[in-house]
What does this fold into?
Amino acid sequence: MQIGELISLGLYFIVMIGIGLYAYRKTNKDVAGYMLGGRQLGPGVTALSAGASDMSGWILMGLPGAMYVSGISSSWIAFGLVLGAWLNYLVVAPRLRAYTELAQDAITIPDYFEKRFRDNSHTLRVLSAIVIIIFFTLYTSSGVVAGGKLFESSFGLSYYAGLYITAGVVVTYTLFGGFLAVSMTDFVQGCIMFVALILVPIVAFSEFDNLAELNATVASVDANLLGLFSGVTALGIISSMAWGLGYFGQPHIIVRFMAIRSLKDIPAARRIGMSWMLVTITGALIIGYIGVGFVAKTQSDFGDPETIFIFFAKLLFHPLISGFLLAAILAAIMSTISSQLLVSSSSLTEDFYKIFLRKEASQTELLLVGRISVVVVAGVAIALAYDRSSTILSLVSNAWAGFGAAFGPLIILSLFWRRMTRAGAIAGMVTGAVTVLLWLYAPITIDGASLGSYLYEIVPGFVLATIAVVLVSLATQPPSKELTDTFDAAKQAVNAV
It folds into this structure.
């Protein structure tokens, strides 16, 4: 590691921990303050926090790598994600913000499900909390693995040292500052990612005289890389676009909508968030595309396509700047890990400890349990990450599909269909999760290929879960007047804005 890169990285760590300590002093000393920031996030922090926690390291490594290998046809996944994120802001954000406050101030997604349907048996809460804890522990582990490999490949440290550095910094600011620290650090990390994904494409493109030269060089490698429909089938396009469906059920993203300070701030958050997303996704795709031409033109010794951003950062920039750019990758990884740690911690605290072990626990006790839960989940994630064969991308893909299918239809229908019932919600959650698992692991093949190789598992999971919610809700007793009155109040609150 060069001294310039070390300085940039050290400054980044100091800023992250400093924000955590600042948030610790500003956060209300209760569970609502620790887990949801007291519902006081501004539109800018909400938007960039949602975006940074969503994108993770895949936007700086996975997406450029996909473009490098598959060419312009890999843009379909970006189209789907942009559409899904926009609909999430437009459809889910306003009603979820209003409804979670009216439903006895629900502060977690399992808490919202229970209060939305007055589920005194806690079935919905427990089922959704189990899904969150299992998937997010594995999801967090994939981020820790990515951090370990980044430190190993870019900074010359051991893989295991990278695990502990990545997890240690994230746990420190999450442990002390809670949701406010996570959101504020996400905002800073989002800004770093934004600058990096503008700067690297511009500098890399300057190595070519014009766009025509770049296109000709890419075509000399493989003309199919220039085609939007090259090498993809109709089902392949549907599968790529279907990634957008996952947004409606991602707890670490939609919890930002619950925390924004006012319904009136949501349009501003949507404009900021979507502008940020369009720039960053476009920049990531361009990096992969330019990478094909650059490597061919310079005959560079280049291996893993997912490291094209790192390749450019180290080759084209001064060590101080390359350290900043490498910190952008770490920022993307850490922003997602911190959000997942906090959501897992909130479920362990609110949905298990408080419900089943200590119903009369004080706010101080719950805060302590929440902080201990952050450390426990991080410890399990590190233990899982010791298996160096951990598959990062497939794990992220599976978790995204699992959350999208299990929670997405429930979130949307619970906010827009007053006839939905508790039994319908349970049926939909179970159907979505089981369908995804069967699609992934059932010994069923078509011409020797797995079902997932033909159609992304979120599609059948989302569709069947929606059908299950509707059919079971219609077959069971309608919700009480108390529930429909709360539903109407949330609708009126949104319409008033």
